[in-house]
Design a protein that fits this description.
By secondary structure, the protein is mainly alpha-helical. It has 11 helices and 2 strands, in the order H-H-H-H-H-H-H-H-E-E-H-H-H. Strands 1-2 form a two-stranded antiparallel sheet.
């Protein structure tokens, strides 16, 4: 079983449990006030394995499965089957925690704020993919073709703006932080990704 599939299954299982167990949901969610004041640091990890509803879960897990399998395979090719899978898993978990840091700093004294979901870690996986395949064509809204690098830039700009302006309870700062963290980690592990990215960025391809 791939690490990606394991993460999808684990997230699905824990999310389903939390859908039907309010106490479990409350115990696992990212609650900056509890993290900061009660030292419940585990929430920065567990919150990434539960979701608000089926749509939230399905979208995150679809993106993770589609891009995670490819990124996991790249890790395996770079670092061998054992270390590659271990590093990929550690990357996912580390990005998950890092993606919660902005909201922790912003809402550490706000007991009414909470967030959940794997979006931060999934963003890290997606943007690692962007570094490897910048001109790969993605389906925006599953229909409109858009290059991965263009999607990435627009996504970062939107997440940065939304984190400052929107009050929809979606942790947009986690998306931005996760995306940056995912890219930084693969650059640190494999500096050769930079010249590879620069080479591939000049090789524009067609969606057809």
């Amino acid at each position: 079983m791939s690490v990606t599939l394991f993460l999808v299954i684990l997230s699905g299982f824990l999310s389903f449990r939390a859908f039907n167990d309010e106490k479990l949901f409350q115990r696992l969610k990212h609650h900056p006030y509890s993290v900061y004041n009660n030292k419940e640091y585990y929430r920065m990890l567990t919150s990434g394995f539960i979701h608000g509803d089926w749509m939230h879960l399905i979208i995150n897990m679809y993106v993770l499965y589609e891009f995670g399998n490819i990124v996991e395979e790249m890790y395996i090719q770079l670092f061998n089957p054992i270390y590659g899978r271990v590093l990929y898993l550690l990357m996912y978990l580390v990005v998950l925690v890092i993606s919660d840091i902005p909201s922790l700093r912003k809402h550490k004294n706000n007991p009414s704020y909470a967030s959940i979901g794997a979006s931060g870690a999934v963003s890290g996986v997606l943007f690692t993919y962007v570094l490897f395949f910048p001109w790969s064509w993605l389906g925006l809204f599953f229909v409109i073709p858009i290059p991965a690098i263009v999607f990435g830039v627009l996504y970062l700009v939107y997440s940065s703006w939304a984190a400052r302006k929107m009050t929809d309870r979606i942790d947009h700062s986690a998306h931005f932080a996760g995306a940056i963290a995912g890219m930084v980690i693969i650059i640190l592990l494999y500096p050769g990704i930079i010249p590879l990215f620069l080479e591939r960025i000049t090789q524009i391809t067609s969606p057809w």
